[in-house]
Structures are given as structure tokens and as C-alpha cells.
Amino acid sequence: MNVIYILWLRQLKRYSRSRARVVSSLAQPLLYLVAMGYGLGPVFQKAGMGSYLNFVAPGLVAMTILFTSVFSGIDLIMDRQFGFLKETLVAPVPRVWIILGRILGGATVSIIQGLLFLGVCLIAGFRWHDFHLLPLAILFMVMTAIVFAALGSVLGCVLSDAQAFPLMMSFLIMPLFFLSGAMYPLANLPGFLTFLTHVDPLSYGVDGLRYALSGTGHFGPLIDLGVLGGCSALLVGLGAYFFSKIQV
Amino acid sequence: MSDAIDQPGASQRAMITVKNLTKTFGDFTAVKDISFTINEGEIVAFLGPNGAGKTTTIKMLTTLLKPTSGSIELDGLNTATQPNEVRKRFGIVFQDASLDDELTAQENMDMHGALYKVPRRVCAERTAKLLGLFELQERRNEPVKRFSGGMRRRLEIARGLLHTPRILFLDEPTLGLDPQTRNQLWSQVKKLNVEERVTVFLTTHYMEEAERVAHRVFIIDGGRLIAQGTPDELKKQTATDTLERAFLALTGSTIREEESNSADRMRQMAKMWGRR
Predict the structure, then answer these.
(1) Where are the domains of chain A?
(2) ipTM surpassing 0.90, yes or no?
(3) Which of A158, A248, B25, B218 has its CA 20 to 30 A from that of A141?
(4) Are A44 and A138 in contact (CB under 8 A)?
């Protein structure tokens, strides 16, 4: 257990020591918040959908978590290149513990980032629907963070080269984000987009957060929790499997 | 020079037993059918030109890489079936960096202590002792990224010794170190060997170091073990007067840089496409 803790702590220490990372991973969702939140606001309002800022903010909180957690997992590639990975691979502990520590550490960091960004949204004018749902909001943040930290770890195990970073960005992270309903309502979409949004696990994280923060939802919180729970079990399992197979 | 032989120090208990070890990456054979036994308390230098298969062998011995065929036993435990038990027995100083740059020296040591389940108090004592020994005590709370190359090496070595391993693997540990630090390192290694009967398996390109510390020398070339014996035996065998000349007589004087690079590339490709 101590092993899980020490690797979790490592992720937090690394996070707290690189302010550049904190700022840069908040900058992108902030840009979306300003450009989209205010830019699309009037159109959204005219369509009778209410405040776009209130709609999009939970989606952007989910985005912050997505980016931070996937990259914390992919960080494994950096550990592989800069060598620290070997130190953990020769250690006499089950590798499952090591990868669990990493996933939980990455998830924790991204939850902190998500909460920070939620603060930014509140400053920018986001109106929280019901503060009593804070625990539920945090639960959805935790679930989303674990799903994508585990996904990042799977990728970090399978890929061994930092050149894969831009590929991941274009072919995985951005599609996950844009096909999640973070930016638009999931109702009345064309058939193929309905399909894509329904298979994107982030949709359920966004939907859950939107329920807890803005009081509107598409799937309902129970379905959201179920899907996120299933995905996290699957991806943590896969991450543990691939990590146990790593050779350097 | 001769103290290595005066002081075999080794018992007859086998600490490392390797049988018919082979490793291939795609079409490339990095290690071909190697067998050897190292007894408890021996210091063995594993020498060979670049790309000869030294690091691949060490990686297999330390459970980082699975052999294509053959078997390895460390302290009577099989690396394939009991990797975690095996991992408790050895410490390793890798050829390339394996520290966490963002963490301090102290934190790197603490991390190692936790990974090896060294009791907290023992860990603190040994850390202080080892950091003192390698003259890092004063800068223990600085992040490793601010350390020079030599300081990093010293920290890696200190860390490898933290959990008092039975076997110590040193993969080119003195690369990039100044003579003072090299001298200190080998003195420490010999001391550990004598006082705690730690078995040492090392690779180096500095023949005079091997001659100075090793009881026995293995020479590997092209993935095959081509000679083994005490430094004196090898010199006698080749009718030369230094280990370096003996080494050159056995391995020829062609430069092997290309082989090493193509091997690396093969490995890289194999990894990228998932053929591990």
C-alpha cells in the first residue's frame, strides 16, 4: 500500500513543482470559455436554450480533467525516455501497485486542475445550479479522472516514443473532447454523431458534471455513473495488464 | 593488481547461474547461447565492445527483459517464475539515468526505500550514511535536475546500495566520472564485497578498472561468451601483459559502433510495432 502512496505522492510533488504545467493546462479551457462561452452565447440564447456559459462550463471542466489526466498517463513515455521507469520496473513489488499509484496520482492532479478551472468559471460568471450537489460533482470528476488517467497509462505502456504525443492529440484527445457533448447538447443530433457521442466515455463524464453543476442532463446521473464505472474498471485492468508486460 | 586474485573471497555457493541464454530481436541475435556461473562473493567484470550484448544480458539478469530461451537463477531463484523474489536480491546501477529529476536526492532515496520496503528508520540511517559517503549530504534537498553528471551517477550508486542487495549489478557505472570519484566508487564496491560478501557483476570499458577490482573477467563479443578467467589467466592465454591487450587480442581491433546502432534501431522498431 505504501508503494501506491509513494507513487501517488510523486505525481503530486511533480505537479506542485511545475507551475508552467498548472498554468498551461488551464489556458486552453479558458480560451474556450472566453471564445465560445461569450462568443456563442447570444445565438444559444436566441435559440431558447438559456445561458451558453452555464451550459459549456461543466464541459470545459471535463476537458481540463481529460487533458491533464491523459497526459499524466502518457507521462510514462517520458519516464521511459528519462529512465525513472526502470527504477520502478526492477523494484520488488507487484507492478499493479505501481501503475495504480500512477493512475491515482494522475487522477488526483487532474481533479485539482478541474476544481481550479471550476473556480475560474465561477469568476467568469458561471452560475452554479445547486451547491448541495457538490459531492456529486466531485464524484463525477473523480470517475472521469480515473477513466482518462487509466486510458493515458494504457497508451503510455503501448507507445514507447514521445513522437506519439502529437498523434495522440489529433487522433484521440481532440476527438474525445469534440465528440463528447461538452460544446453542444446531445439531443437532436444527426444519426452518426449521436452514435459517436454515445460511445465516447467523456460524454458521460460531461453529462454527469452538467447534471451536478448546471442541473441539466441527457443520460441521467445513474447511467453516467454506470458507464464511467465500467470504463474505469476496464481501463485500469488494461493498464495494469500492459504495465506488467513492459520490457525495456 | 594481483590483490584481485589473492583474495578470491568467493564461496562455492552459486549466486548467478545462467544456462544457454539467448535473446533475439527480430532477425538480430543480441545474445547467443551464453552459460556461466558466478559464486557468492565474486566480483565479475563483463567486458565487450559496443553492441556485444552486455546491456542486453544485464537487462535479462535483472528481469527487465525476457530471454528468448535459456534460464537464469539468482540466489537459486528463477527470474522468469519468481521475478519479485529475485528483485529483492539485487541492486542495479543502470548505464543511463534512472533518477527522477524533479525530486530531490533525499526524495529519490526515500522512494527507493519505500519500493524496497526498507524500514523507515533503517532507510533514514542508511540514506544519511550513503549520501555522506558519496558526498551528497549537503545537497540532499536539492532537485536532481540541478545536479552535475557526476553527482547524478553518485546518487544512482548510493541508491542502488540502499537496500543492502546480495548482488550488485553495475552497468558502466564509472562512465563520465572523474578519477577521484571512480576511485572512490571502486573502493566502496570492494569494501562491500569484502565486508558484506556482496556479489558484483559489472560492465566497463575501462580495462584497468576491471583488472583492479574483478576476480574474474568474462569477454563477450557478437553476443557470444568468447573467453573467461582471471585477468592473469586471460593475459597468459593471449601472451599479453595487460588486460587491455588481452581484450584486443581476443576481440580484434575493428570498431563496432555500427553494430550497436543497428541493434538499437532494431530494438526501437520492434518496440514501436509491439513485437516484444
Answers:
(1) 2-244
(2) no
(3) A158
(4) no
